[in-house]
Amino acid sequence: MTKAFVDGQWLAPKSGDQFSVSDPATGNEITLLSDCGIHETEMAIDAAHNAFPAWSRKSPYERSNFLSKIADLLTKNADKIAPIITLENGKPYKEAFGEVLYSASYFKWFAEEAVRIYGDTIPTRSASSKATATKHPIGVCAAITPWNFPLAMLARKAGAALAAGCTLVAKPAEDTPLSALTLAKIFEEADLTNGVFNVLPASSPVEIGKVLTTHPKIKKVSFTGSTDVGRILYTQSAPSLKKLSLELGGNAPFIVFESADIDLAVKGLMQAKFRNAGQTCICANRIFVHKNVRDKFVSKLSEKVSKLKVGNGFSEETMIGPLINSAAMKKVSSLLEDAVSKNANIITGGQKSPAGDLFFSPTIISNLNSDMEIAREEIFGPIIPIFEFDAEQEATIAANATDYGLAAYIYTEQLSQAWRVSDALEFGMVGINETQISDAAAPFGGINQSGFGREGSKYGLDDYLEIKYRLFGNLR
Ligand code: ADP
């Protein structure tokens, strides 16, 4: 598993180049991996292109059976795969184990959906005509995935693509390629011997990204990552009019209304904020609390936050692992420094953790204003900024005051308020009295600068399908 997976084989790149993958918790090198480039990318695209006719013509039941097998193998091997995620990403083992099962759930869901790709028959104007709309796989697809859920983000794309009848070339993040290669190993164990699913580990994504977004044989690119990179891929894909799905950054508001069940809201925020040390695109990023419940909420929250154990993900008591790399540490530290320099008040935490170079203490800050970078940027770290509000409309306007539009959360016991506010929030996903919104059966995705396209659900499958309209005329 130190090589690329291309055309069902483990491939060492022509250049012989390798790159190092390290454990963010210790800084130690985990292994050296094949460093793929343009040549291997073109090989993988050709392999996926050659595999497409047979894969797309298989009966949906055959594809479904194969995907079920992947789901089963992931589930069966969860205790062997989870340590690989913890090792390269740093997240606590329990979260990593959950990620394996969550990944399996996408393969299972799409295995079930593969046999339900229905079309339409369309009533026609002429009695001698019949019309249909049928769905067909779009072709060879590319997946570019991030490091925060190194297995699940690929599982979401691969499950849908393969169920639709597409073939896939995947480029995982340079910090976490081992999880993707582990998935390739699972495909190999499921007897995949051709280019239906290919994985290209690489230290430098730019040239590979260019090939994937410009190659005429690639029909669609699915990307999860930063908005800046999403824009680059969008621009590069334009000349060849590739279909795109872009799941980009977020800046999720979390609103606690006066009527909220405060214990429930605190629990929801702990889950939404601290999963993966705050490094998720649907993390609660700006917390708006009604002034009449603010003190109660903050006091219950601080009590929980101060008990969080920071440390190596392999330690059983760890709840917060390291940040992914030094750039992430620099960003989180500088967001906090900027806020403090503009008079933010640290309630708890507020510094690096003694657990190691890349560990940050879970932090709550208040007394914030919109001049602070932390009020506008995606934090991607374990910091909770608390804002206070009075009127409902004030909270809604503040929550919408972002260019992003991925997830939002509200806590209220008033049904009308829940409808009214969730209607007014300009986000692709809204959790009401719940922050665990992600599910294989649900359409995950954003609007505005958070991108477009959906993953999971029947809509996630549609993103890999084209519609063909057929008109049979002059029937006798
Ligand atoms: P983050 O800032 O969270 O690391 P990125 O958007 O930089 O997120 O990375 C997400 C994925 O995009 C990774 O697989 C990374 O290698 C890839 N990537 C980064 N820059 C480019 C690029 N110019 N072209 C193609 N892929 C890229």
Tell me the layout of helices and strands.
Blueprint: E1 4-6, E2 9-11, E3 18-22, E4 29-34, H1 38-57, H2 60-76, H3 78-89, H4 93-114, E5 120-122, E6 130-137, E7 140-144, H5 152-164, E8 167-171, H6 177-189, E9 197-199, H7 205-214, E10 218-224, H8 227-237, E11 243-247, E12 252-256, H9 262-274, E13 284-290, H10 294-306, H11 326-341, E14 345-348, E15 363-366, E16 383-389, H12 392-400, E17 407-411, H13 415-424, E18 429-432, E19 451-452, H14 457-462, E20 465-472
Parallel strand pairs: 7-8, 7-10, 8-9, 10-11, 12-13, 12-17, 13-16, 15-16, 17-18
Antiparallel strand pairs: 1-2, 3-4, 5-6, 6-20, 11-19, 14-15
Helix pairs in contact: 1-7, 2-4, 2-5, 3-4, 3-6, 4-5, 7-8, 9-10
The protein binds adenosine-5'-diphosphate.
Description:
The protein has 476 residues and is an alpha/beta fold. It has helices at residues 38-57, 60-76, 78-89, 93-114, 152-164, 177-189, 205-214, 227-237, 262-274, 294-306, 326-341, 392-400, 415-424, 457-462, and strands at residues 4-6, 9-11, 18-22, 29-34, 120-122, 130-137, 140-144, 167-171, 197-199, 218-224, 243-247, 252-256, 284-290, 345-348, 363-366, 383-389, 407-411, 429-432, 451-452, 465-472. The strands form five sheets. Strands 14-15-16-13-12-17-18 form a seven-stranded mixed beta sheet, with helices on both faces. Strands 9-8-7-10-11-19 form a six-stranded mixed beta sheet, sandwiched between helices. A three-stranded antiparallel beta sheet has the order 5-6-20, with no helix packed on it. The longest helix has 22 residues, at 93-114. The model has no long low-confidence stretch (mean pLDDT 97). The chain binds adenosine-5'-diphosphate.
